[in-house]
Amino acid sequence: MIVRDKLYIGGTWSAPSSPEQLDILSPHDQSLVGRSVQALPADVDRAVAAARAAFDEGPWPRTTPEHRQEVVARLNALREARAEEIAALITLERGNPHWFNAAGQGGLTRQALGYLKAAREFGWEETLESSVPDAGFRSVVRREAIGVVAAVIPWNSPFSSALAKLIPALLAGNTVVLKASPENSLSIGLLGDIFAELDLPEGVVSILPAGRETSAYLVAHPGTDKVAFTGSTRAGRSIAAVAGEQLKRVGLELGGKSAAILLPDADLERAVPSLKFSSLANNGEACIAQTRILAPRERYEEVVAALKELLEGLKVGDPSDPDTFVGPLVRADQQERVRSYIRLGVEEGARLVTGGPESPEGLERGNYVKPTLFADVDNSMRIAQEEIFGPVLVVIPYDGEDDAVRIANDSEYGLSGGVWTADAAHGLEIARRVRTGTFTVNGAPIGFDGPFGGYRASGTGREYGAVGLAGYVEHKTVTIPA
Q1: At 12, is the secondary structure helix, strand, or coil?
Q2: CB-based contact 94:188 (threshold 8 Å)
Q3: H-helix or E-strand spanning residue 369
Q4: pTM for this prediction
Q5: What percent of the chain stands above pLDDT 70?
Q6: In whole angstroms, what is the distance from residue 198 CA to residue 77 CA?
Q7: Are residues 209 and 158 in contact, defined by beta-carbon separation less than 8 angstroms?
Q8: Would you call 476 exposed, middle or buried from its count of C-beta atoms within 10 A (0-12, 13-18, 19+)?
Q9: What does the alpha-carbon distance between residue 113 and residue 473 come to, in Å, rounded to a whole number?
Q10: What are the residues facing 260 on neighbouring strands?
Q11: What is the DSSP letter of 318?
């Protein structure tokens, strides 16, 4: 059993304000994985004070961009050295399959490399000549750190969400207080161990597992200058209101209800296996999951049959088993939430093709949900409009490409999406018409050099690459005589 009885505040493992520990239970069988202390507002005060002093008076914001890049490169190397340990622990406490967490470690490397490339090419200071002839002055444009960043992340992909914020914030010279979910208390402790090896200046990074009340306290803390949040749209709206009242900078990566468009010429033998990953990876607990499958009416039943075969062939069970594709959901209340949507789909008149609200046989003790497929779904149904965050797919028929694009865009969200077609160039034409922040053609993976984020209720701001890095700087213009 793993015990975390200290908090990583300002670069030091120190005693929390309360010694009370939270039991971390396995979503698979409810066994005790470990215990961890949780941060309270008094701990946030300490962390923010340390970050404030480090930014206002310490050396970190005043180091060169090249030095900060060297530190981030070392951070990535230290994380890579512990990749297997990290993946295994996330599986134990979170319940997502080991294959997903192990594969995600490579994604973390690509994410870091994308940010480092952007930092090397970033215009930290540029001179602009006046557009007016003989103006007698020129402008120096500087990109400087914002200040203290409050980074708040969810439980579904802890290291990816954490490093997507920590890395660009540090590259720009900011200091950071990271608030992680209680469900990730043990694995996020490993991130604290890694930062302890980096030997950063005092106060630059704090890592706090904590509940919602402490999150709200951090977001509203007057000592922070920016909030970087990944989580639900509902929480994002509340954070945006607080940030607006205080005129803080804010970045929000929120929910999704993305559509996968299968064009009439799509090769289902390629498309359906790809949907296994783009729609159901991470137990379906993914904001980018393409859970609305749009099928041409003339091939509708063919698509439904292929998806039925796919879902019924998935191994559901112990997430530590390398053959498991779908593990348990993170908590019992999340399990019940997904089950309630499955019952709702039946009530709304959708056809339950496979799955259902009952636990998979032999897995009643864990937080398991059967991979579920609904057909005969109208896009106005709640199961087609609301983010379920579990292994539940809906198949919606369409009549012609214009109708498919209309349905794809008929959502309050706009985070992700995809199209499958025999003509990739035509797929790009479809992509241009769908209002989402990211879009894939024929299952191409999302890269880390371009920006990631959403339209509408899927958030504001972007992560990854140069655009993501730019979200952590202020722009200053200095005019000097020519």
Answers
A1: strand
A2: no
A3: none
A4: 0.95
A5: 100
A6: 11
A7: no
A8: exposed
A9: 19
A10: 293, 418
A11: -
In the chain, what are the domain boundaries?
A: 2-254+458-481, 258-447
* Residue 66 annotated among the catalytic residues of the structure: no
The reported pLDDT for the residue numbered 199 is: 85
Looking at the domain that runs over 2-254+458-481, which CATH code has it been given? 3.40.605.10
Beta strand pairing status for 32-37 and 21-25?
antiparallel
CATH of domain 258-447: 3.40.309.10
Backbone angles phi, psi at 344, to 5 degrees: -65, -40
The identity of residue 81, as a single letter, is A
Residue 19: CB atoms within 10 A of its CB come to: 9
The first and second tokens of residue 392, run together, are 């539940």
DSSP state of 359: P
| Residue found by looking up tokens 């949900």 in the block | 369
- Percent of the chain exceeding pLDDT 90 equals 96
Task: Please tell me the distance from the alpha carbon of residue 434 to that of residue 414, in angstroms, as a whole number.
Answer: 9
Residue 261, φ and ψ in degrees, nearest 5: -95, 120
Q: Is 336 one of the annotated active-site residues of the chain?
A: no
The label of the residue with tokens 């993305």 reads: 258
Confidence (pLDDT) at 128: 87
**How far apart, in whole angstroms, are the C-alpha atoms of residue 175 and residue 168?**
11
**pLDDT tens readout for residues 204-226:** 999 999 999 999 999 999 999 99
Confidence of residue 189 (pLDDT cuts 50, 70, 90): very high
Q: What count of residues does the chain have?
A: 482
d(CA 476, CA 141): 6
Taking a C-beta distance cutoff of 8 angstroms, is the pair 368, 391 a contact?
no
Could you identify the residue written with the tokens 């490409």? 401
Residue 482 pLDDT > 90: no
Catalytic hit among 93, 183, 253, 285: 253
Contacts of 231 (CB under 8 A, 6+ apart): 152, 153, 154, 253, 254
Give yes or no on whether 2-254+458-481 and 258-447 have one common fold.
no
As beta bridge partners, residue 354 has: 373
pLDDT for 330: 96
CB 141 within 8 A of CB 128: yes
Task: Read off the DSSP letter of residue 207.
Answer: E
Q: Residue 456, class by beta-carbon neighbours within 10 Å (0-12 exposed, 13-18 middle, 19+ buried)?
A: middle
Q: Which member of 93, 183, 285, 287 is catalytic?
A: 287
Q: What is the mean pLDDT of residues 274-302?
A: 97
